[in-house]
Amino acid sequence: RTAVALLKRRETLGAFNVFHFKGYRVSMRELAQTIETASGQRVQLRKFPWWAIYLMAPFSVMFRGLLEMRYLWRQEVNLVDDKLVGVLGKALPHTPLGQALVESGLLGEPARKNQAAFVLN
User: Fold this and answer.
1) CA 28 to CA 97: how far, in whole Å?
2) pTM of model > 0.90
């Protein structure tokens, strides 16, 4: 909805623009609770086995890249949407996270009971 709202104003915008959308800011625990509520299935959080990634990194470009980007799980990255709010106003279209997960199809298939999710920390 936000992209559509911007497209409706494209005549008033310059040829090239960058708009940040703040989006959702939730912890893994909050995400797990949202998934449980939206899907009706239990989500169990477990620590991610980083030791295994370190073990495989010498043999895999993908795992070396994963280790290189690990800091993003430790350091918050928050986008500032002041420019977007300036164009669309304070009433930005916003879909609650649980609804967005369902509507996106990410929770379309019933999850197995007691399915675990890893926490990347």
Assistant:
1) 13
2) no
Q: Which long-range contacts (CB under 8 A, 24 or more apart) does 34-39 make?
A: 34/97, 34/98, 34/101, 35/98, 35/101, 35/107, 35/117, 37/98, 38/98, 38/99, 38/101, 38/102, 38/107, 39/107, 39/110, 39/111
Distance from C-alpha of 68 to C-alpha of 71, rounded to nearest angstrom: 7
Amino acid at 7: L
Place of tokens 């980083």: 50
Residue carrying structure tokens 């879909």: 95
CB distance 47 to 28 below 8 Å: no
Does residue 119 have a pLDDT over 90? no
